[in-house]
Design brief:
The chain is an alpha+beta fold. It is built from 27 helices and 27 strands. The strands form 5 sheets. It has an 8-stranded mixed barrel with strand order 18-19-21-22-23-24-25-26, surrounded by 4 helices. Helix 7 runs antiparallel to helix 8. It starts with a helix and ends with a helix.
């Protein structure tokens, strides 16, 4: 409607004539009259030089001018434009259409307030209650216009403030005249303000047709009863007694009493009717029991479900002095379910439920399966020590592998504990807090964690960090760093390890240990891995153009190994940069492989088939099986720096390193040592036959763009040192400067 009004003005012959003759008085009059006629608060003409003309009584604020000029730019490209903006905490709809004579000589822009009149019109058209709200970045929601009764607007604002409603969300509003169901629609958003429309529908109005249908059914039922009564009177002489008894039985059944006797005296018709009543009673009773069980009991484990557990918990909190809730989530269950199938997973959950009932030491009715692989235990009038003891028994019971279909499954669990009244006053809050504690237990590796309010703050910080990480990837805040890898016998630079640094616009340089562990927990590490692979491939192509061909090492996480499409994604990156897979060495930790050996091996085989080299990173720190590792298509072992750094002072570390070098060579693998910080460690590793190394002695991690310069300086000065006949490699002097810079 607003666009049509603007188009009518843009095509008005008198208006076009006034523009052509530059009759400013007529232009201003037409703008004012037409704007008032269709309800526009601002009507302006923007010429091709972006100058604005308005009616004599109108003024245009700077904010409105900015919005209009932004839409003029859009209209210049697309022909016309419609947008929504916020001015002085009030939303406006702005329409921009071109004025052609016959080429574009300007644009008509109209600003229409999104106000009470529009809200009333929308309600008349849609039968929905409409509210327009705005909010500053740190403020509360403010009501611009609404069709709600005044007593309901308070509930609306309270609901919006309390829930922190996001755009396009749905919400329930408890109004003074009944409940409302609402939906939030985004109108406009700036860095400092947000405007939304909330469309509400009265639940009572929505259910009115069903209430009428219910009334009709009641009327029909009453009619049937009246007819039956008349028929009873007509046949009273013959079947009055039995029929009265059957009527009484029918009433008992309607009230839910299925235990009373059913009369069996009377004629053949009465006996047949009695048998039908008995069959109906049994059928209804059985179905009600099944419905109740489906509503409140888990069909898989025959334990109470979340609804039953929540109801029992709420009832217990009304009378109990204290109550502790334990919530447990199984470790590695998803992998078992994916590999062995859902049927196997369901049977495994039944076994876990039976084990909880057997070993938890509480009434089975207070144990529930909340969904998936989550279980909960309720301890009424128990102490924290009692709760910890139950958690210990449960965890100890899971230490014994579960045998199923000739398979022994080893499961662990993370358990969260929350207490009433210390941590929450109601059932829903208590369950919410114990779930937070459970997730903390799983992330931290602790088997049982008691809820702490600080965990909620940590969750909010984690959400903020995840959002900032996504922003960092999208806005080029990440930087590729590299650390050179050198042969220990000749000192040649033959490789480099790709690393990531985060240049935060406010925090400055953020190092990996501050965001990589969080990325692995949330799964965002997959995005970071693809970013590093892409940047490393681009670096490889640039170095090849300079005549340098180092093999680039990139770390692959456990979550990456679970991605069966990793090889396909990696191949797409190689094709995009025209780089060969043999230019890469992908490093995988032992623990990442052993999380799910079958899927890990499938992924490694796919990467190996592309031609990429594979390396076992941090070798010696995990608990992997050598019998399994020898089956993997790896080319390199990388000794963890914890063994290398002090090997010149610790004989045990030196023995471990020597054994690892011998083991790797016996398996036909290259051996790389990381963490070389002194000349003496270099010499020891070289004497042991270690192939390559990296560490601060040679170079700290440096920006990827500086690698070619570093490589040439290293080669030049290393060759110069070697020409002097020194038997011990010397670090080039330029490295000292790099260390100071780092």
């Amino acid at each position: 409607m607003f666009t049509q009004g603007a188009q009518l003005l843009a095509k008005d012959y008198g208006f076009l004539s006034a523009i052509a003759s530059r009759d400013e008085e007529t232009i201003g009059s037409v703008l004012t009259n037409h704007g008032e006629r269709i309800g526009a608060s601002v009507t302006v003409l923007v010429d091709v030089g972006r100058a604005m003309r308005t009616g004599p009584a109108q003024s245009v604020s700077a904010d409105v001018q900015r919005l209009i000029l932004d839409l003029v730019d859009v209209a210049a490209r697309e022909g016309s434009a419609v947008g929504t903006g916020i001015v002085d905490h009030a939303p406006f709809q702005i329409v921009v259409v071109p004025v052609k004579a016959p080429v574009v000589v300007g644009w008509v822009a109209m600003a229409f307030p999104i106000d009470q009149r529009l809200a009333n019109d929308m309600r008349d058209l849609s039968s929905l209650e409409v509210s327009f709200l705005t909010r500053s970045a740190q403020g509360k929601w403010q009501l611009s216009a609404t069709t709600l009764a005044s007593q309901n607007t308070v509930s609306l604002l309270r609901t919006m403030d309390a829930r922190g409603i996001s755009r396009d969300a749905s919400l329930d509003i408890a109004g003074n005249d009944g409940a409302y169901r609402g939906s939030v629609v985004d109108l406009a958003s700036t860095r400092t303000q947000t405007a939304v429309a909330v469309l509400q529908r009265s639940v009572a109005a929505a259910t009115a047709p069903y209430d009428a249908l219910q009334m009709m059914l009641l009327v029909l039922t009453a009619g049937v009863i009246v007819i039956a009564a008349i028929f009873s009177v007509l046949t009273a002489r013959r079947i009055t007694g039995p029929l009265r008894e059957l009527t009484s039985t029918a009433r008992r059944l309607g009230a839910g009493d299925y235990d009373g006797p059913i009369p069996s005296s009377g004629g053949e018709e009465i006996l047949e009717l009695s048998n039908a009543f008995a069959s109906m009673r049994n059928g209804i009773s059985k179905r009600e029991m099944e419905i109740h069980k489906l509503a409140y009991w888990d069909a898989l484990t025959d334990l109470p479900n979340r609804a039953q557990f929540t109801r029992k918990l709420a009832h217990a909190l009304e009378t109990a002095q204290s109550c502790h809730i334990l919530m447990m989530d199984l470790d590695r269950f998803k992998n078992v379910n994916d590999v062995m199938g859902h049927g196997f997973g369901d049977a495994l959950l039944r076994k876990v439920g039976n084990r909880l009932v057997e070993h938890a030491g509480v009434d089975g009715a207070n144990i529930a399966r909340l969904g998936g692989d989550e279980f909960a235990i309720m301890l009424v009038d128990a102490t924290l020590a009692d709760a910890m003891a139950v958690a210990s028994r449960v965890l100890k019971s899971l230490e014994t592998p579960i045998s199923l279909d000739d398979q022994a499954v080893d499961l662990g669990a993370g358990i969260g504990i929350a207490a009433f009244p210390e941590h929450a006053q109601d059932a829903e809050s208590l369950l919410s807090h114990v779930e937070v504690a459970m997730h903390v237990a799983k992330r931290s590796g602790n088997q049982a964690v008691v809820y702490d309010p600080a965990y909620d703050e940590s969750s909010q910080q984690s959400l903020s960090l995840l959002s900032e990480l996504r922003h960092a990837v999208d806005h080029n805040e990440l930087r590729l760093y590299v650390q050179p890898k050198l042969s220990l016998d000749m000192g040649e630079v033959h490789g480099l390890e790709a690393l990531v640094r985060w240049v935060h616009p406010e925090r400055g340089m953020v190092f990996p240990d501050q965001f990589i562990p969080f990325s692995e927990q949330t799964g965002f590490i997959r995005v970071l891995t693809l970013w590093i692979l892409d940047q490393a491939a681009a670096l490889c192509a640039r170095l090849a153009d300079e005549g340098l061909h180092p093999r680039i090492s990139v770390n692959i996480s456990a979550r990456d190994l679970m991605d069966q499409d990793l090889a396909e994604k990696f191949m797409a990156i190689l094709r995009r940069h025209n780089v060969d897979a043999s230019s890469f060495c992908l490093e995988i930790t032992e623990s990442a492989i052993m999380d799910d050996p079958l899927r890990a091996q499938n992924t490694l085989n796919s990467l190996h088939a592309l031609g990429a080299q594979l390396s076992i990173d941090d070798f010696g720190t995990g608990y992997s099986s050598l019998a399994y590792l020898k089956q993997l298509p790896v080319h390199e072992l990388k000794i963890d720096k914890s063994f290398v750094k002090n090997m010149e002072h610790d004989a045990n570390d030196a023995k471990i390193v020597r054994s690892t070098v011998d083991l790797g060579h016996n398996m036909g693998l290259r051996v790389v040592a990381e963490g070389i910080e002194t000349r003496q460690v270099w010499n020891l590793l070289s004497e042991m036959g270690c192939d390559s190394g990296q560490g601060y002695y040679m170079s700290r991690p440096i920006p990827a763009d500086e690698f070619s310069k570093w490589s040439r300086r290293w080669t030049s000065e290393y060759d110069a040192n070697s020409a002097t006949g020194r038997s011990t490699p010397m670090v080039p002097q330029m490295e000292i400067q790099l260390e100071q810079d780092a």
